[in-house]
């Protein structure tokens, strides 16, 4: 019996560790994309564009009708007539590369033991060989914030590009922020098929006091030059000097108000809300304190009986109209597999109030600003990473988003997946090519 178990384990590991498409080599030839409709990512659209990039960086963004280029200025020219050019989409608060198969424990490394883990770095558990990663790129998702789960303070996230040999190759920004799961002011019983009751969380004040005490102790440690090292306290340094963001996972109105107040009182310079289901009720507070929101998955039902049935769809519009910086995240059931649907979440926001370019910003420029990587990516602008793609149609519409080419830091990446290979295999078998 033991031998059978070992054989099954080896078989599962052989499946989950099988490498995805080979990472593309470093860009060696300069590329010019001509005549496509370029969606810059900041609200601007160039109907007849010229997008050039060399050595992984964008060197030209212009109206193709208004410029003249010397012959041979770029090694490769791509005619994108009738096509759309977009900056690569960014998936924040993601566990891509941390879990391969939920039912296989040895492939699950998204959560650490313990409650207070600011020193736990998700990036060192990130597997660039994950088979799930290659399934999100054909829809334009080319970057992700790799984020731990569990506990009160889950740990530290990092931002990666999704075509790499290992985590060191993948990193765009290492240790960008620490993730705090803020206590809920309510406790719920029951399940999705048998609704229970909602009660006040009797330990709410105590739980907040524990967070405050931890932050106070960490600040005291950092200012004391103690001879005894405390790695947990040391990991919080970036919160107080402004090098890291405190990402607070909270959905309720009271949670969000108390979370922002706690951060202010403890001298934390950069704060963002993840989830933010009732953030529209606190928009003035968020806008005043420059707190961005990464909204929870919008393809969802209302949480309470007295809420509009389309509230999840129009939440981004409500916050945007009130001056809050908004991005989209996709955590929840089957989060990793559903990451491919990130652009279509933005498309739903466009259908419920935002214009298409505002909706595009939810998964490009706005998210880049909230994550602190907007100087490097998030828009098609000179000097930024050449992480972009070309689509036959509207990238926010699942009916027409069909990528023809994609580039990460100037490297032409493969858009093949295990699914597309199977599709081609059986088309050939049944003579459907």
TrEMBL record:
**Which InterPro entries is this protein grouped with?**
Amidohydro-rel, Metal-dep_hydrolase_composite, Metal_Hydrolase, Metallo-dep_Hydrolase
Report keywords, A-Z: Signal
Indicate the segments forming the Amidohydrolase-related domain, all copies: 344-409
Q: Which SUPFAM superfamilies match?
A: Composite domain of metallo-dependent hydrolases, Metallo-dependent hydrolases
Q: Which Pfam families match?
A: Amidohydro_1 (PF01979)
Leader sequence range is 1-19
Top-rank taxon, per record: Bacteria
Among the GO molecular function terms of this UniProt record, one is: hydrolase activity, acting on carbon-nitrogen (but not peptide) bonds
Q: What is this protein called?
A: Imidazolonepropionase
């Amino acid at each position: 019996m033991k031998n059978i178990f070992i054989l099954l384990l080896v078989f599962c590991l052989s499946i989950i560790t099988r490498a995805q498409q080979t990472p593309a080599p470093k860009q060696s030839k300069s590329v010019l994309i001509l005549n496509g409709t370029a969606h810059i990512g900041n609200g601007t659209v160039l109907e007849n564009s010229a997008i050039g990039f060399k050595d992984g960086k964008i060197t030209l963004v212009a109206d193709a009708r208004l410029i003249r280029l010397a012959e041979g200025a770029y090694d490769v020219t791509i005619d994108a007539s009738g096509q759309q050019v977009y900056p690569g989409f960014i998936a924040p608060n993601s566990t891509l590369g941390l879990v391969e198969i939920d039912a296989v424990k040895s492939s699950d490394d998204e959560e650490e033991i313990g409650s207070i883990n600011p020193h736990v770095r998700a990036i060192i558990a990130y597997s660039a060989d994950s088979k799930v990663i290659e399934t999100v790129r054909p829809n334009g998702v080319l970057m992700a914030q790799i984020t731990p789960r569990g506990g009160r303070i889950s740990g530290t996230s990092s931002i990666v590009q999704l075509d790499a040999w290992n985590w060191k190759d993948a990193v765009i920004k290492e240790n960008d922020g620490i993730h705090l799961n803020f206590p809920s002011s309510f406790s719920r019983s029951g399940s999705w098929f048998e609704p229970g009751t909602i009660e006040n969380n009797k330990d709410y004040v105590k739980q907040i006091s524990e967070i405050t005490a931890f932050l106070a102790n960490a600040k005291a440690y950092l200012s004391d030059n103690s001879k005894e090292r405390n790695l947990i306290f040391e990991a919080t340094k970036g919160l107080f000097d402004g090098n890291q963001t405190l990402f607070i996972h909270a959905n309720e109105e009271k949670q969000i108000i108390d979370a922002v107040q706690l951060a202010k009182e403890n001298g934390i310079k950069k704060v963002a809300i993840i989830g933010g289901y009732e953030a529209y009720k606190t928009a003035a507070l968020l806008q005043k304190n420059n707190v961005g929101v990464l909204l929870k998955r919008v393809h969802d039902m209302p949480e309470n009986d007295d809420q509009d049935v389309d509230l999840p769809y129009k939440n981004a519009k409500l916050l945007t109209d009130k001056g809050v910086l908004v991005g989209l995240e996709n955590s929840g059931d089957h989060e990793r597999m559903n990451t491919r649907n990130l652009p279509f979440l933005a498309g739903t926001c466009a259908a419920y109030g935002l214009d298409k370019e505002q909706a595009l910003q939810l998964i490009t420029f706005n998210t880049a600003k909230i994550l602190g990587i907007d100087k490097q990516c998030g828009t098609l602008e000179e000097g930024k990473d050449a992480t972009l793609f070309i689509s036959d149609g509207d990238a926010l519409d699942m009916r027409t988003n069909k990528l023809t080419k994609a580039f990460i830091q100037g490297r032409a990446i493969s858009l093949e997946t295990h699914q597309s290979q199977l599709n081609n295999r059986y088309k050939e078998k049944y003579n459907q090519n």
